[in-house]
Amino acid sequence: MNWKTLVCLSHITLVASLGLAAHAQTFSVIHAFDGQNGAFPFGGVTLRDGSLYGTTYYRDFQEATGTVYQSKHVGSDWITTPIFIFPTDGSGGDIPEARVVFGPDGALYGTTGTGGYGAGGGVVFSLTPPSPVCRTTSCTWKENVLHSFQDGPDGYQPGYGDLVWDSMGNIYGTTKFGGNSKQGIVYQMSKSRDVWTETPIYSFQAPRNPKQEFDGIHPFSGVILDSNGNVYGTTLAGGLYGAGTVFELTYVNGVGWTESILYNFRNFSDGHWPQGGLLRDSGGNLYGATSDGGNGGGGTLFELSPVGDTWVFTLLYSFSLTGPPGMQCGPWEPLTMDESGDLYGATICDGIDGFGNVFKLTNTQDGWEYASLYDFTDGPDGAYPVSNVTIDADGTLYGTAYAGGSFESDDCKASSGCGTVWMIKP
User: Fold this and answer.
1) Is residue 46's pLDDT more than 80?
2) What is the chain's percent helix, strand, coil content, to nearest 5?
3) DSSP symbol at 389
4) CA distances from 284 to 170, 260, 265, 289 (A)
5) Is the four-CA dihedral 169, 175, 178, 184 of positive or negative sign?
6) How far apart are CA 183 and CA 215, in angstroms?
7) Distance between CA atoms of 323 and 325, rounded to whole angstroms?
8) What's the pLDDT tens digit per position in 369-385?
9) Which of 67, 187, 198, 367 could form a disulfide with 38 if both were Cys (CB 3.0 to 4.6 A apart)?
10) What does 270-309 look like in DSSP terms, one character per residue?
């Protein structure tokens, strides 16, 4: 595969990992990108009114600006069209790594990894739908750039995760780099009279002393909030052992935002590099994944449970790695939980064929039971599913694969496919 398109993702090589297989669902491809109207869907999809919304890393190979697309269910078919193409001058942002999500106002919101005004450090943007009087398929959504990151205290290069809202309508997100120590930040976006203002609420610090507990660095994923407005997330690296952290930010009147490190990864059985972010259940337990390490060397799935004033770490599953050690084949984006409390996700390069898989972790009386629902083959089905998994009300799963799929254009052939949007029916 041509890896030139993966260089900007996180500067990590992808290889194969072997997992368990238990196929009981029906897999199908909703759309294979052709490299002309989108290529390389890095983020997952958002479901609204029976349609899927997502992003592609590239528009095409001549103008690598990226797109936002809609996959609409029409009868028994899916029709996928770009609803927004990022401008070629970079002013509206370039290369969206995260999916788009709907805000409280009904607009789509997202981030790009690069582009924008000034330093080109990415943007926070919103998209509003075209006028209802538009009756053609060429009607596109209108972009509003809410903030362009300048590689200063405001941060640089937003992370992979979703933007989230608090009860007051403020938006929260992360940047992988930038901030006071260039190690990444958590930021808040607040709106006043239709103008959005970005405020860093926490800037991660460089290590101070190897013998001291020091901060995490590089929050690659987004953050989540609890009902009290506390902010939770992960950092790819840093912490007491340099293997990443789980952190909490709490707002204290008169003081501001303060950080607590809930867990320092040790790069033993617990794993290494928790870049996928967190999921929180109704009981306040946190679930996440590491993309490397663990008993099998291919990353882990974990749970953190609040017990009094401490947090208890539980290893739920270790992925196996059959390739060279040190490669990140585990999940890169947050897990998803269904109404029964079962967990779903995707690995980059686990699975029988080493091109990633979609998995389910079932909560049983005897513990968590792992099953691989689908193993990608790097054929028409796709390869390297970076995305999270989206669940419909009937239990249908949706997601994307970064590569594989269409080989029709010369560029897609050279890159081993331009990626797919997939569906798994129960």
Assistant:
1) yes
2) 5, 45, 50
3) -
4) 22, 16, 20, 17
5) positive
6) 10
7) 6
8) 999 999 999 999 999 99
9) 67
10) T-B--TT-EEE-TTS-EEEEESBBSTTEEEEEEEEEEETT
Is 408 inside a domain boundary? no
C-alpha to C-alpha distances, 325 to 329, 333, 352, 357, 370, nearest whole angstrom: 10, 21, 18, 19, 23
Residue written as token pair 């017990």: 307
Comparing CA positions, the residue from 198, 203, 164 lying closest to residue 183 is: 203
Task: In whole angstroms, give the CA distance from residue 425 to residue 9.
Answer: 30
Structural domain total, the chain:
1
282-296, 348-362, 381-395, 404-418: range with lowest mean pLDDT: 404-418
User: CB within 8 A of 318, min separation 6: which ones?
Assistant: 269, 271, 294, 295, 296, 298, 299, 300
Instruction: Kindly state whether residue 412 falls inside one of the protein's structural domains.
Output: no
Residue 13 within any structural domain of the chain = no
Long-range interactions of 250-255: CB distance < 8 A, separation 24+: none
Q: How far is CA 167 from the centre of its chain?
A: 23
What is the arithmetic mean of pLDDT over 407-422?
84
Measured CA to CA, the distance from residue 244 to residue 261 in angstroms comes to 10
Q: Which residues pair with 213 in a beta bridge?
A: none
Domain limits for position 168: 45-215
What is the strand order of the sheet 256-264 is part of? Answer: 224-225, 231-235, 245-252, 256-264
Q: Given phi > 0 = left and psi -120 to 50 = alpha, else beta, which region is 416?
A: left
CA 210, CA 318: separation in Å to the nearest integer? 28
Other Cβ atoms less than 10 A from the Cβ of 290: the count is: 29
Residue 183 lies in a domain: yes
Q: How far is CA 319 from CA 11, 161, 347, in A?
A: 21, 22, 9
Burial class (CB within 10 angstroms; exposed 0-12, middle 13-18, buried 19+) of 257: middle
Rg of the chain over Cα atoms, rounded to whole angstroms, equals 20
Q: In what order do the strands lie in the sheet with 45-48?
A: 45-48, 51-56, 67-74, 77-85
Looking up tokens 């780099």 gives 177
